[in-house]
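Practice problem: MbtH family protein
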Amino acid sequence: MNPFDDPRHTFTVLTNDEDQHSLWPAHLPAPAGWQQAHAPADRATCLAWIEAHWSDQRPRSLRTAGADR
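Answer key — structure tokens:
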């Protein structure tokens, strides 16, 4: 099974400089440019956190460009 889909694994939530979010297996190092935003937890908890905190999926640069109009 893909480690990103396996509910038996522990996950974390990563964010990047564009405020994008990613569910990430906790045992893997975060890729360059991504930081941990939520402590390791079960998959459902991490997905719920993403849903609660990432309401606008546009990258930050696109959101701020639209604010200038």
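Discussion: The longest strand covers residues 34-42. Students who identified this feature from the tokens alone can consider the problem solved.
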